[in-house]
Amino acid sequence: MSTRSADPTRPDTAGAADNSGAPGPDAAPDNPLLRERAHLAASRSALRAMREEAESLDTSNVSANWVSAEALRHDIDQRIKALADLSGTPLFFGRLDYLHAPGRDAGATDEAEEAHRFYIGRRHVHDAGGDPMVIDWRAPVSQPFYRASRRDPMDVALRRRFGYTGGELTAYEDEHLTDPTEADTTSKLLQQEIERPRVGPMRDIVATIQPEQDEIVRSGLSGTVCVQGGPGTGKTAVGLHRVAFLLYAYRERLARTGTLVIGPNRSFLHYIEQVLPALGELEVKQATVDDLVAQVARVEVRGTDEAAAAVVKGDARMAEVLRRAVHAHVTLPTEPVVVVRGSRRWRVPAYELEEIVRELQGRGIRYGAAREALPQRIAHAVLVQMERAGEAPDDRVQDAVARNTAVKAAVKEIWPPVDPAKLVLRLLTDADFLAEHADGVLSEDEQKTILWARSVRSVRSAKWSAADVVLIDEATDLVQRTPSLGHVVLDEAQDLSPMQYRAVGRRCTTGSATVLGDLAQGTTPWATRSWEEALAHLGKDDAVIEELTAGFRVPTDVITYASRLLPHIAPGLTPVSSVRENPGFFDLRPVTEDAQVVGACEELLKREGSVGLIAADARIPVLAEALDAAGIGHLGPGEETTRETRLTLVPASLAKGLEYDYVVLDEPGAVVGGEPDERTGLRRLYVALTRAVSGLIVTHAAALPPQLG
Ligand SMILES: Nc1ncnc2c1ncn2[C@@H]1O[C@H](COP(=O)(O)OP(=O)(O)OP(=O)(O)O)[C@@H](O)[C@H]1O
Question: Domains in the chain: how many in total?
Answer without folding.
Answer: 4
